[in-house]
Amino acid sequence: MKFKKLKIDFMTDEQCFFCKSGRKLKEGFLIKNNLTGELLVSSRSCYEKNKSSFSNNDEIIPNLTRGILNSVSVPKNIGSDKSKKPGKSVELSNIEYLILRQEKLRDVSGIPFEGIDDIYNSYRENYVISSLENNRLQRFIDKTKRSFPQLAPSKLQRLYATIFWMNYAIEKQPNEKSKNFMRSILKQYKTYRGLSIKQIEVIMGIIETLNSKIDNKRYHIPNVELLSNNE
């Protein structure tokens, strides 16, 4: 088979490898060309049309888009919790945590990434982890949840989603003054992993204004829930 699907993730106006529609993706599949090693992206619909070209067609893959509200980004039989066996569900959740903590949120204050670097490096080689690595990672997550509940997997999913879409909103601002204003709030968000209620209202207002100017809802910033300082 020519391709391997790796994960479901947010996109910043990426175009699907398979089609020539020109549609800009906000989320989709990161895939790998097994022949060249090239990393590409695919829309959900094009993945469905080209399933026979994937070596891991029946495999359920990590989903990094769980942090948005009322998520509909998980296609049937691809990331649905109902289709997972309990052990596989836990392993996938652990891998999502691993990617978020070691890769996506490395520049966020207070999220140390030491201690599981070797597991992440192992995962990056073949996009799988061994049962021993998974057990060790599970113990690490359990210990972290007890000592630092703010670093629980669900919190990291929300943190990643909100940071990703705040960055996107910054790039879409009409002038440098507006961009710098949002950058200053994002910097605080990354430092304290939360904002005041007033700051949250301001950011959500900016996102709503941005979406109101985009006719096609497909291109809207999705519904995200910023973390507050009280969480």
Descriptive key words:
alpha+beta; 3 strands; 231 residues; 45% helix; three-stranded antiparallel β-sheet; 3 domains; 12% strand; flat
Written description of the protein model:
- This protein is of the alpha+beta class and 231 residues long.
- It has 3 domains: 3-53, no CATH class; 81-149, no CATH class; 154-219, no CATH class.
- The protein has helices spanning 44-49, 86-104, 117-126, 131-147, 153-171, 176-192, 197-212; strands at 3-15, 24-33, 39-42.
- A hairpin with an 8-residue loop joins strand 1 (3-15) and strand 2 (24-33).
- Helix 2 packs across helix 3, helix 2 packs across helix 5 (153-171) and helix 5 (153-171) packs antiparallel against helix 6.
- The chain is flat, with a radius of gyration of 18 Å.
Tell me roughly what share of residues is in helical segments. 40-55%
The major β-sheet equals: 3 strands, antiparallel
Strand order of the largest sheet: 1-2-3
Helix/strand/pairing category? alpha+beta
| Total DSSP E strands | 3
> What string gives the helices and strands in order?
EEEHHHHHHH
Brief overview:
This protein is α+β, with helices and mostly antiparallel strands and 231 residues long. It contains seven helices and three strands.
Topology, please?
Blueprint: E1 3-15, E2 24-33, E3 39-42, H1 44-49, H2 86-104, H3 117-126, H4 131-147, H5 153-171, H6 176-192, H7 197-212
Antiparallel strand pairs: 1-2, 2-3
Helix pairs in contact: 2-3, 2-4, 2-5, 5-6
